[in-house]
Amino acid sequence: MSAVLDRRAYAELATSAVPAREAFAYWREMICATFVRLTAEPVTDGRFRGRIEHIPVGDLELSAVVAGSQHVRRTRSLIAQGNEEYLLASIQLQGSGRLEQDALTATLSPGDMAFYDSTRPYTLHFDDPFHQLVVQVPKRELMLGDTRRMTARVLGRGTPGGVVATFFTSLFDVAREDPQQSAVLLPHAIGLLSAAASFGCRTEPTPDATHALARERVLDFLRRNLADPRLDAATVAKACNVSRRTLYRMFGDEGVAARLRRMRIEHAKAMLLHHPERPVGAVGLACGFDSESGFHRAFRAAAGKTPGEYRQARHAR
Q: Model's pTM, two decimal places?
Protein backbone atom coordinates (compact mmCIF):
# COMPACT_ATOMS: atom_id res chain seq x y z
CA MET A 1 0.00 0.00 0.00
CA SER A 2 1.30 3.47 -0.91
CA ALA A 3 0.56 6.64 1.05
CA VAL A 4 -1.48 8.89 -1.23
CA LEU A 5 -2.55 12.37 -0.12
CA ASP A 6 -4.46 15.13 -1.89
CA ARG A 7 -2.83 18.23 -0.41
CA ARG A 8 -5.93 20.29 -1.20
CA ALA A 9 -8.25 18.18 0.95
CA TYR A 10 -8.58 16.87 4.49
CA ALA A 11 -6.79 13.56 4.94
CA GLU A 12 -5.83 11.19 7.71
CA LEU A 13 -3.02 8.66 7.29
CA ALA A 14 -1.94 6.09 9.86
CA THR A 15 0.48 3.19 10.04
CA SER A 16 -2.35 1.08 11.48
CA ALA A 17 -3.50 0.68 7.85
CA VAL A 18 -0.60 -1.70 7.07
CA PRO A 19 0.96 -4.80 8.71
CA ALA A 20 3.41 -4.09 11.54
CA ARG A 21 6.43 -5.18 9.49
CA GLU A 22 5.60 -2.53 6.85
CA ALA A 23 4.76 0.28 9.28
CA PHE A 24 7.96 2.34 9.09
CA ALA A 25 8.33 2.02 5.33
CA TYR A 26 4.75 3.24 5.04
CA TRP A 27 5.57 6.07 7.48
CA ARG A 28 8.36 7.27 5.17
CA GLU A 29 5.84 7.45 2.34
CA MET A 30 3.39 9.29 4.60
CA ILE A 31 5.80 12.07 5.55
CA CYS A 32 6.98 12.51 1.95
CA ALA A 33 3.39 12.74 0.72
CA THR A 34 2.45 15.23 3.45
CA PHE A 35 5.50 17.48 3.55
CA VAL A 36 8.52 17.27 1.20
CA ARG A 37 10.89 14.49 0.15
CA LEU A 38 12.41 13.09 3.33
CA THR A 39 14.19 10.04 4.67
CA ALA A 40 13.69 8.66 8.16
CA GLU A 41 15.02 5.98 10.50
CA PRO A 42 13.42 4.57 13.67
CA VAL A 43 15.26 5.06 16.96
CA THR A 44 14.15 1.81 18.59
CA ASP A 45 13.19 -1.68 17.49
CA GLY A 46 9.65 -2.96 17.75
CA ARG A 47 6.32 -1.88 16.35
CA PHE A 48 6.27 1.68 15.04
CA ARG A 49 3.07 3.73 15.21
CA GLY A 50 2.38 7.05 13.55
CA ARG A 51 -0.58 9.13 12.46
CA ILE A 52 -0.91 12.35 10.47
CA GLU A 53 -4.07 14.46 10.23
CA HIS A 54 -3.70 16.93 7.36
CA ILE A 55 -5.91 19.99 6.86
CA PRO A 56 -5.41 22.61 4.11
CA VAL A 57 -6.42 26.22 4.79
CA GLY A 58 -5.95 28.08 1.52
CA ASP A 59 -2.26 27.81 0.64
CA LEU A 60 -1.42 26.88 4.22
CA GLU A 61 -1.20 23.23 5.20
CA LEU A 62 -1.68 22.18 8.82
CA SER A 63 -0.62 18.68 9.86
CA ALA A 64 -0.95 17.14 13.31
CA VAL A 65 1.74 14.49 13.70
CA VAL A 66 1.62 11.86 16.46
CA ALA A 67 4.37 9.28 16.19
CA GLY A 68 7.09 7.20 17.81
CA SER A 69 10.77 8.04 18.09
CA GLN A 70 12.68 8.64 14.86
CA HIS A 71 15.25 10.74 13.02
CA VAL A 72 14.05 12.56 9.88
CA ARG A 73 16.37 14.10 7.30
CA ARG A 74 16.03 16.41 4.32
CA THR A 75 19.24 15.89 2.33
CA ARG A 76 20.81 17.77 -0.59
CA SER A 77 20.06 14.88 -2.94
CA LEU A 78 16.38 14.89 -1.95
CA ILE A 79 16.21 18.67 -2.41
CA ALA A 80 17.68 18.29 -5.91
CA GLN A 81 14.90 15.86 -6.88
CA GLY A 82 12.13 18.46 -6.66
CA ASN A 83 11.32 22.15 -6.59
CA GLU A 84 9.45 22.38 -3.29
CA GLU A 85 10.09 25.75 -1.66
CA TYR A 86 8.30 25.84 1.67
CA LEU A 87 8.76 27.48 5.02
CA LEU A 88 7.71 25.06 7.74
CA ALA A 89 7.08 25.66 11.42
CA SER A 90 6.96 22.89 13.99
CA ILE A 91 4.87 23.59 17.08
CA GLN A 92 5.63 21.12 19.85
CA LEU A 93 2.48 19.91 21.62
CA GLN A 94 3.76 16.89 23.57
CA GLY A 95 7.17 15.36 24.10
CA SER A 96 10.28 17.08 22.81
CA GLY A 97 12.03 17.51 19.49
CA ARG A 98 15.31 18.77 18.13
CA LEU A 99 15.65 20.66 14.85
CA GLU A 100 19.01 21.16 13.14
CA GLN A 101 19.56 23.46 10.16
CA ASP A 102 22.47 25.67 9.08
CA ALA A 103 24.68 24.42 11.97
CA LEU A 104 22.08 25.63 14.50
CA THR A 105 20.01 23.48 16.85
CA ALA A 106 16.60 24.28 18.34
CA THR A 107 15.35 22.04 21.15
CA LEU A 108 11.57 22.24 21.38
CA SER A 109 9.42 21.67 24.48
CA PRO A 110 5.60 21.84 24.55
CA GLY A 111 4.46 25.32 23.49
CA ASP A 112 7.66 26.08 21.55
CA MET A 113 7.87 26.73 17.83
CA ALA A 114 10.69 26.82 15.28
CA PHE A 115 10.98 27.48 11.54
CA TYR A 116 12.88 25.48 8.91
CA ASP A 117 13.32 25.91 5.16
CA SER A 118 12.76 23.08 2.68
CA THR A 119 15.37 24.47 0.25
CA ARG A 120 18.26 23.63 2.62
CA PRO A 121 19.14 20.38 4.44
CA TYR A 122 17.68 19.84 7.89
CA THR A 123 17.29 17.09 10.46
CA LEU A 124 14.53 16.44 12.97
CA HIS A 125 15.34 14.28 16.01
CA PHE A 126 12.66 12.71 18.17
CA ASP A 127 14.17 10.43 20.83
CA ASP A 128 10.76 9.58 22.32
CA PRO A 129 7.13 9.56 21.13
CA PHE A 130 5.87 13.06 20.33
CA HIS A 131 2.99 15.20 19.10
CA GLN A 132 3.58 18.21 16.84
CA LEU A 133 1.55 20.56 14.71
CA VAL A 134 3.42 21.39 11.51
CA VAL A 135 2.50 24.54 9.57
CA GLN A 136 3.65 24.56 5.95
CA VAL A 137 3.38 27.49 3.53
CA PRO A 138 4.93 28.22 0.12
CA LYS A 139 7.76 30.72 0.59
CA ARG A 140 6.29 32.93 -2.14
CA GLU A 141 3.27 33.62 0.13
CA LEU A 142 5.51 35.29 2.71
CA MET A 143 7.78 37.03 0.19
CA LEU A 144 10.84 35.95 2.13
CA GLY A 145 14.42 36.48 1.13
CA ASP A 146 17.21 34.70 2.99
CA THR A 147 15.65 32.68 5.85
CA ARG A 148 18.94 31.70 7.53
CA ARG A 149 18.46 34.21 10.32
CA MET A 150 15.10 32.77 11.35
CA THR A 151 15.46 28.98 11.05
CA ALA A 152 16.32 26.58 13.90
CA ARG A 153 15.63 29.21 16.56
CA VAL A 154 13.28 28.50 19.45
CA LEU A 155 10.28 30.83 19.65
CA GLY A 156 8.77 29.98 23.01
CA ARG A 157 6.19 31.07 25.52
CA GLY A 158 6.27 34.77 26.36
CA THR A 159 7.40 35.68 22.84
CA PRO A 160 5.45 36.40 19.63
CA GLY A 161 6.20 32.79 18.72
CA GLY A 162 4.15 31.61 21.67
CA VAL A 163 1.18 33.72 20.56
CA VAL A 164 1.50 32.40 17.01
CA ALA A 165 1.75 28.79 18.23
CA THR A 166 -1.47 29.20 20.22
CA PHE A 167 -3.23 30.72 17.20
CA PHE A 168 -2.30 27.86 14.87
CA THR A 169 -3.26 25.23 17.41
CA SER A 170 -6.71 26.86 17.61
CA LEU A 171 -6.87 27.27 13.82
CA PHE A 172 -6.30 23.54 13.38
CA ASP A 173 -9.27 22.80 15.67
CA VAL A 174 -11.46 25.34 13.85
CA ALA A 175 -10.46 23.98 10.42
CA ARG A 176 -11.37 20.46 11.49
CA GLU A 177 -14.86 21.52 12.59
CA ASP A 178 -15.65 24.43 10.23
CA PRO A 179 -13.48 24.74 7.08
CA GLN A 180 -15.42 27.80 5.90
CA GLN A 181 -14.67 29.75 9.07
CA SER A 182 -11.00 28.73 8.96
CA ALA A 183 -10.70 30.19 5.45
CA VAL A 184 -11.81 33.56 6.83
CA LEU A 185 -8.84 33.42 9.23
CA LEU A 186 -6.28 32.81 6.47
CA PRO A 187 -5.12 36.47 6.11
CA HIS A 188 -4.53 36.63 9.87
CA ALA A 189 -2.60 33.36 9.72
CA ILE A 190 -0.24 34.66 7.03
CA GLY A 191 0.25 37.92 8.92
CA LEU A 192 1.08 36.08 12.13
CA LEU A 193 3.57 33.82 10.38
CA SER A 194 5.25 36.91 8.96
CA ALA A 195 5.39 38.47 12.42
CA ALA A 196 6.92 35.34 13.95
CA ALA A 197 9.42 35.10 11.08
CA SER A 198 10.42 38.74 11.66
CA PHE A 199 10.87 38.05 15.35
CA GLY A 200 13.02 35.03 14.51
CA CYS A 201 15.18 37.26 12.29
CA ARG A 202 15.28 39.97 14.98
CA THR A 203 14.01 42.42 12.35
CA GLU A 204 11.18 44.94 12.47
CA PRO A 205 7.92 43.32 11.32
CA THR A 206 5.77 44.99 8.66
CA PRO A 207 2.79 47.08 9.83
CA ASP A 208 0.40 44.29 8.71
CA ALA A 209 2.35 41.68 10.65
CA THR A 210 2.46 43.91 13.73
CA HIS A 211 -1.30 44.44 13.53
CA ALA A 212 -1.92 40.70 13.13
CA LEU A 213 0.21 39.90 16.16
CA ALA A 214 -1.45 42.54 18.35
CA ARG A 215 -4.89 41.33 17.28
CA GLU A 216 -4.03 37.72 18.10
CA ARG A 217 -2.75 38.76 21.53
CA VAL A 218 -6.15 40.30 22.20
CA LEU A 219 -8.03 37.24 20.90
CA ASP A 220 -5.86 34.95 23.01
CA PHE A 221 -6.64 37.07 26.09
CA LEU A 222 -10.37 36.89 25.29
CA ARG A 223 -10.24 33.11 24.87
CA ARG A 224 -8.43 32.65 28.18
CA ASN A 225 -10.73 34.97 30.12
CA LEU A 226 -14.15 34.59 28.50
CA ALA A 227 -15.53 32.92 31.64
CA ASP A 228 -15.21 36.25 33.50
CA PRO A 229 -18.58 38.06 33.22
CA ARG A 230 -16.90 41.37 34.18
CA LEU A 231 -14.64 41.36 31.14
CA ASP A 232 -15.03 44.57 29.14
CA ALA A 233 -13.13 46.65 26.58
CA ALA A 234 -11.28 48.70 29.21
CA THR A 235 -10.01 45.56 30.95
CA VAL A 236 -8.92 43.99 27.66
CA ALA A 237 -7.14 47.14 26.48
CA LYS A 238 -5.22 47.47 29.74
CA ALA A 239 -4.24 43.77 29.86
CA CYS A 240 -3.04 43.78 26.24
CA ASN A 241 -1.29 47.14 26.49
CA VAL A 242 -3.26 48.80 23.69
CA SER A 243 -5.52 51.84 23.64
CA ARG A 244 -9.28 51.42 23.46
CA ARG A 245 -9.22 53.22 20.11
CA THR A 246 -6.73 50.64 18.77
CA LEU A 247 -8.89 47.87 20.17
CA TYR A 248 -11.95 49.13 18.32
CA ARG A 249 -9.96 49.49 15.09
CA MET A 250 -8.91 45.84 15.36
CA PHE A 251 -12.49 44.56 15.27
CA GLY A 252 -14.16 47.13 13.05
CA ASP A 253 -17.94 47.27 13.00
CA GLU A 254 -18.28 44.06 15.01
CA GLY A 255 -16.70 45.57 18.12
CA VAL A 256 -15.03 43.89 21.06
CA ALA A 257 -18.25 43.09 22.93
CA ALA A 258 -19.80 41.36 19.92
CA ARG A 259 -16.64 39.34 19.28
CA LEU A 260 -16.51 38.28 22.92
CA ARG A 261 -20.17 37.27 22.84
CA ARG A 262 -19.57 35.20 19.69
CA MET A 263 -16.60 33.46 21.28
CA ARG A 264 -18.69 32.68 24.36
CA ILE A 265 -21.47 31.20 22.24
CA GLU A 266 -19.01 29.02 20.27
CA HIS A 267 -17.47 27.82 23.52
CA ALA A 268 -20.95 27.11 24.90
CA LYS A 269 -21.83 25.06 21.81
CA ALA A 270 -18.76 22.89 22.33
CA MET A 271 -19.52 22.43 26.04
CA LEU A 272 -23.16 21.53 25.36
CA LEU A 273 -22.08 18.76 23.01
CA HIS A 274 -19.05 17.42 24.85
CA HIS A 275 -20.54 17.59 28.36
CA PRO A 276 -24.15 16.35 27.98
CA GLU A 277 -24.38 15.75 31.74
CA ARG A 278 -23.73 19.41 32.55
CA PRO A 279 -26.85 21.56 33.22
CA VAL A 280 -27.50 24.32 30.70
CA GLY A 281 -27.27 27.01 33.39
CA ALA A 282 -23.84 25.75 34.47
CA VAL A 283 -22.63 25.89 30.87
CA GLY A 284 -23.76 29.51 30.60
CA LEU A 285 -21.94 30.49 33.80
CA ALA A 286 -18.77 28.70 32.64
CA CYS A 287 -18.88 30.75 29.44
CA GLY A 288 -19.13 34.14 31.13
CA PHE A 289 -22.90 34.77 31.12
CA ASP A 290 -24.03 36.20 34.44
CA SER A 291 -27.51 34.65 34.35
CA GLU A 292 -29.24 31.66 32.78
CA SER A 293 -31.90 33.87 31.19
CA GLY A 294 -29.23 36.09 29.60
CA PHE A 295 -27.48 32.98 28.28
CA HIS A 296 -30.73 31.70 26.74
CA ARG A 297 -31.45 35.02 25.03
CA ALA A 298 -27.95 35.40 23.61
CA PHE A 299 -27.76 31.79 22.48
CA ARG A 300 -31.18 31.87 20.77
CA ALA A 301 -30.28 35.12 19.00
CA ALA A 302 -27.03 33.61 17.68
CA ALA A 303 -28.06 30.00 16.98
CA GLY A 304 -31.81 30.23 16.39
CA LYS A 305 -32.40 27.65 19.15
CA THR A 306 -32.26 27.53 22.90
CA PRO A 307 -29.20 25.80 24.38
CA GLY A 308 -31.31 22.76 25.26
CA GLU A 309 -32.78 22.54 21.75
CA TYR A 310 -29.31 22.86 20.21
CA ARG A 311 -27.92 20.05 22.38
CA GLN A 312 -30.89 17.79 21.62
CA ALA A 313 -30.77 18.43 17.87
CA ARG A 314 -27.02 17.73 17.58
CA HIS A 315 -27.20 14.54 19.64
CA ALA A 316 -30.14 13.32 17.57
CA ARG A 317 -28.03 13.26 14.37
A: 0.71
